[in-house]
Write a structure and sequence with these properties.
mainly alpha, 2 domains
Length: 199
Amino acid sequence: MTRSLTHEDLAAFQTRLCDVAEGLFARRGAENVSMRQIAAELGVSPMTPYRYFVGRDDILVAVRIRGFERFAALLEEAYAATPGNAAAKGAAAARAYVDFALDNANTYRLMFDLHQQDDASDGPLGRAVRRARATLSVYGDGLIRGGMAKAEARAMEGLIWSTLHGAVTLELAGTTPAGSARETLRLLGRLAAPVAPPT
């Protein structure tokens, strides 16, 4: 007699499905992955994924939500756990950013290399995107509290974000050698120190 699946069983399979899909999306490009291919990779019938998701795009949304939420949680934790002023906290968040990107390359690419309609929505993906974006604003927030004009602080924040993103993207692509993103982070910290807010 086949036992009924528990909520935990269903959640575990859904997680495994998202893990498998994430790898396929990253290797082949999301537009080149079918529900049938996901099922084959999982070793289940072609219709099984449809019990959990309407289609491939819904799986991609779920994968990206997980990524943005994990990313935001790590940066929030780094910021909250670091003693000292806003500069020290911002540096800790920047290190967490680079660590996440290098340790979760597939997830990072799907988060930032793709754009879906729901990215700007009030739904779960839109909320996850906004939470992640808020964690990237801590440095600019600190500059503003330290007296810098808002427009200038946000421009500085954007410069730091784009520099980190560029550094990790180049390293993940193999264009720059291993360790180059962390070296960029180190140099960026030296350059940003003179404008860091005192509190």
